[in-house]
Input
Amino acid sequence: MRRSLIVTMTLCLAAGTVSADTVSGTVELTYTGNFTDGTIKIWGGGLNGQACYGGFYEFTKGASTGDGDSIPNSPCWGPCIELTEHPDKNTAVLYNVVALAGAPDPGTDVPGGEIGPEKAAYLRELTGRYFAFAAADGAKAEVFSACVWEIIYEDLPDLVTDWNVTTGYDSTTKVGFHCTNVDTTTANSWLHSLDGTGTTHGLLAAVNDGKQDYMFPDAHIPPIPEPATLSLLALGGVGVLLARRRKAGG
Output
């Protein structure tokens, strides 16, 4: 009984995860600044040691349609997922809204393809585990963005411990990613924790061909607890049922 309850809860919560072919909409975003502690020095995504703002990009949200309504109104913060493009400051830009897995992949796995479900899964767990920490501290927001770029611009690793933001960029082929001027120890620690057992969160991408693309938590999808929490919730549910039965019987 307990096992079936856990499985049922897992399926119900996982149903909140959006798929690339069911998400559509638009959102108007005006870039107003960055929530960050400074700049990160980046190799990758068309950059070769340039100092760029990390952390979360800040926007004023305008009109939206469809799943664009699910992008948070305030604070409207999201990390960049495309280093080769740049934001238009204080200019309203209309973006298409897609599931993160269906966003264009600027990395090395599938040139011209989509980010795909595997990388999207890493990014959902990164968001579920650490977005709240990053949203409360500019230095942690920088760490979060470094993790995002490592996942997007590097090939999928054989082991989760292979993620490393301090190595990976090939100066000859100009593919891969690494960075400095950020807490790389914490970044690698966060990446190495992404083993599929952590809380995850639904994500959307705002994309515009010719403009920088961004990733946002889906405000209409609650975080999905990790399996250990699901087990505790399930046991709690069993306890409530037993208590009700005892009350009814006594």
